[in-house]
Design brief:
With 274 residues, this protein is an all-alpha fold. The protein has 13 helices and two strands. One of its GO terms (molecular function) is DNA binding.
Length: 274
């Protein structure tokens, strides 16, 4: 969809123009995919899906379309995906369902013959090993340690060779979007309590809150400032604490700090815009 949308914006493209557009879209997909790889549960989900393939519960072609050779020239046609689409999610899903129904008439063997199962086994094993290395470094050193960053970067490089079917790719992307929506919901509510209800100046709120999203310290500091609005903040203290606890819960679920969730989503958005 991204490829055809881009192709439709330019008249009479040359072969070089087609290649340029395809490479730009592929670069965007790679950036989104590398960003998603930094979310530990995304790779866990993918590995769980492959375990279902090995158990005979789903077909390999329901999970991946193949692999990209990092040493080979880039293919012209990029991976199909809904990222960047302006259509509502329900319409995109409807399109996918329609396509699935049309493809049901094709033989299962035709779908899987283009993917070497032994190569897939090797690739998924390499992904599993690198994923475990990254998880161990996170557990030992935390997310910000150089060793952890190196292992996560290597995980992104391994994951970049995978080409997922659109539904699986979009599932991973949408999970991160939903996580970001939950973060925004709580942050907006906290700002409403402090700025709108308690009349705390927005500038003060942003200065204290940014980078301290799950800590009580910024709120304590705001109350201690003894400003006219400081006393009003005490009236909303319990509600603010509940929202902070929900943000902490997101950090526990994702294994990421709120700042890291935002950074991953920012880079995903940049990739989608390419």
């Amino acid at each position: 969809r991204m490829y055809m949308r881009e192709m439709g914006t330019v008249e009479l493209l040359t072969r070089e123009g087609e290649i340029d557009i395809a490479k730009r879209i592929e670069d965007g997909i790679n950036q989104v995919q590398c960003s998603v790889a930094e979310y530990p549960e995304a790779i866990t989900y993918l590995l769980d899906q492959y375990d279902r393939v090995e158990a005979g519960e789903v077909r390999l072609s329901d999970l991946i379309t193949g692999f990209v050779d990092p040493n080979a020239e880039e293919d012209l046609a990029p991976t199909a995906t809904n990222i960047g689409s302006e259509l509502p999610a329900e319409e995109l899903n409807k399109d996918d369902d329609d396509e699935d129904e049309e493809e049901e008439d094709d033989s299962d063997s035709d779908d899987d013959n283009s993917i070497d199962p032994e190569l897939a086994r090797q690739k998924f094993e390499a992904l599993r090993v690198q994923h475990e290395k990254a998880r161990q470094q996170i557990k030992i050193h935390g997310r910000d340690h150089p060793n952890t960053n190196a292992e996560i970067q290597q995980l992104s490089e391994v994951f970049k060779e995978f080409r997922l079917v659109p539904k699986q790719f979009d599932h991973l992307v949408n999970n991160m979007r939903e996580m970001m929506d939950r973060v925004r919901q709580q942050e907006r509510y906290i700002m409403k309590l402090c700025v709108e209800q308690s009349k705390m100046p927005k500038k003060n709120f942003i200065t204290l809150f940014t980078g301290n999203e799950t800590s009580d310290s910024w709120f304590t500091a705001a109350v201690a400032m003894n400003k006219p609005w400081s006393e009003k903040l005490q009236d909303v203290a319990e509600e603010v604490e509940r929202s902070l606890q929900r943000l902490r819960q997101i950090e526990e679920e994702t294994g990421l700090t709120i700042e890291q969730v935002k950074d991953i989503n920012r880079r995903m958005s940049i990739g989608e815009a390419k």
